[in-house]
TrEMBL record:
Protein keywords: ATP-binding, Membrane, Nucleotide-binding, Transmembrane, Transmembrane helix
Organism: Ranitomeya imitator
Organism superkingdom: Eukaryota
Residue spans crossing the bilayer: 15-33, 97-116, 136-156
Membrane topology type: Multi-pass membrane protein
Domain ABC transmembrane type-1, chain residue ranges per copy: 8-158
Domain ABC transporter: 193-420
Broad class of the protein's primary localization: membrane
Pfam families linked: ABC_membrane, ABC_tran
Transferase among keywords: no
Protein name stated in the entry: ATP-binding cassette sub-family B member 10
Annotated localization: Membrane
PANTHER family referenced in this protein's UniProt entry, alphabetically: ATP-BINDING CASSETTE SUB-FAMILY B MEMBER 10, MITOCHONDRIAL, ATP-DEPENDENT PERMEASE MDL1, MITOCHONDRIAL
Keyword check for DNA-binding: no
């Protein structure tokens, strides 16, 4: 027999309507609850992220925190952030408890109401005891389904709330392409650099322009030394050439091609960088204890190199940081040499190495620079003297540009002043060294 079981409405339409009258009310509550849970879940993710960011930053910079005696303040700040996350977790727990309590209560009320109303209907002979029993079974299953549905709905809303940040990130369009654009054929690639009326401000500080109408040409195969007061934007020039940022106005041309039309991945493969800041920062953090695993990981390459360099010594404990730094620098240069880039961006160290290491590093650098277009943030007088041209940066533009000797002819120029300042600094260092 292919007989379908009787529908809940066929058993007793009157009782079915009575039982299902609870559904619209539950639906309204579910919508309000769902919205609330979504909001709380989103807030929880945000505040958790803020707490993690705070702890990462402060632990990463524990030396600064310690140096300023701000441990208690930072701990209070972190406590505040974690307490807020806890508050949100309480709110979520209360909302869940309320919702599940309500759905559970409605299920039980439905069964009780069916027993009461069904008893009345049975007593008035409108319904048989068998019909009431089967109706109770149906009502029971409806109750269980509502329970399951509310639990699923609850998790779904929580997921929507937490996922909205991820979707926001997934939907973000990169400001610059990753691996698209023009590639200059190797036989045509010469490596000429040309900044044309470049204006730039960092996205995080749109009110502080770094460059305004900056013009600078570096012919292919020549060495351009860039000097300027601290904060004049020397490192920013390097960031722009690596296309970590795009100019806000004007353009940068490489062999007469606007850089924005070139494939950034290809371009970076043609640019070698030797940054001494990186080497020094890592040399410093290699002295940190193992406890700061994140910091050690960041500098894993340099740390393991420094350990390896020291390992070669007869007594590694006698190896000084200055010796390691001279060797590390040469490894960085060797790496750039193997890349064989057409364009080379160098950031010279401000701290002086000892004479022997300075000679070795300079020799390796000279070899590296041969036949390439070089932009060097120069601090050593020898580099400035040997460069084909020197560009002096100040107030967001190139204020002087020419050969070293040529620039020195203007005693009131910024270059002459910078050189005078540097030589008086060197003189005072020398006299401090020779003092008993
Ligand atoms: N990522 C960044 N976001 C916002 N501002 C920045 C950023 N990097 C640098 N700056 C600011 O841009 C200005 C120029 O910095 P830059 O490092 O290019 O100067 P610099 O001439 O290389 O300085 P120094 O000789 O001290 O290294 C500074 O005021 C600096 O605070």
């Amino acid at each position: 027999m292919d007989e379908k079981p009787p529908h809940i409405f066929f058993v007793s339409p009157q009782l079915a309507m009575f039982v299902l009258s609870i559904v619209p009310l539950l639906a309204v509550v579910a919508v309000i609850y769902g919205r609330y849970l979504r909001k709380v879940s989103m807030l929880t993710q945000d505040s958790l992220a803020a707490a993690t960011q705070l702890s990462e930053e402060r632990i990463g910079n524990i030396r600064t925190v310690r140096a300023f005696g701000k441990e208690m303040l930072e701990m209070e700040k972190y406590d505040g952030k974690v307490d807020y996350v806890l508050d949100l977790a309480y709110k979520e727990a209360f909302a869940r408890a309320g919702f599940f309590g309500l759905t559970g209560l409605s299920g039980n009320l439905i069964v009780l109401a069916v027993l009461y109303k069904g008893g009345l209907l049975t007593g008035a002979a409108h319904m048989t005891v068998g019909e009431l029993s089967s109706f109770l079974m149906y009502a029971f299953w409806v109750g269980i389904s509502i329970g399951g549905l509310s639990s699923f709905y609850s998790e779904l809303m929580k997921g929507f709330g937490a996922g909205s940040r991820i979707w926001e990130l997934l939907d973000r369009k990169p400001l610059m392409p990753f691996n698209e654009g023009l590639v200059i054929p190797p036989e045509k690639f010469r490596g000429a650099l040309d900044f044309r009326d470049v204006g730039f401000m960092y996205p995080s500080r749109p009110d502080a322009p770094i460059f305004q109408g900056l013009n600078l040409s570096v012919p292919p195969g020549s060495v351009m030394a860039v000097v300027g007061p601290s904060g004049s934007g020397k490192s920013t020039l390097v960031s722009l050439l690596l296309r970590l940022y795009d100019p806000s106005t004007g353009s940068i041309h490489i062999d007469d091609h606007n850089m924005q039309n070139l494939n950034p991945l290809w371009l970076r493969s043609k640019i070698g960088t030797v940054s001494q800041v990186q080497v020094e920062v890592c040399a410093d953090s290699s002295a940190l204890p193992f406890l700061f695993s994140g910091c050690r990981n960041q500098c894993w390459f340099s740390c393991s190199i420094s350990e390896n360099i020291a390992y070669g010594a007869e007594d590694p404990s006698t190896v000084t940081q200055a010796q390691i730094r001279g060797q590390k620098q040469r490894i960085a240069i060797a790496r750039a040499l193997l890349k064989n880039p057409r364009i080379l961006l160098l950031d010279e160290a401000t701290s002086a190495l000892d004479a022997e290491n300075e000679y070795l590093v300079q020799e390796a650098l000279d070899r590296l620079m041969e036949g390439r277009t070089v932009l060097i943030i120069a601090h050593r007088l020898s580099t400035i003297q040997n460069a084909d041209a020197v560009a002096v940066l100040d107030q967001g533009r190139v204020v002087e540009c020419g050969k070293h000797a040529q620039l020195l002819q203007n005693p009131n120029g910024l270059f002459s002043k910078l050189m005078e300042k540097q030589s008086s600094l060197l003189r005072s260092k020398d006299s401090a060294r020779s003092a008993p």
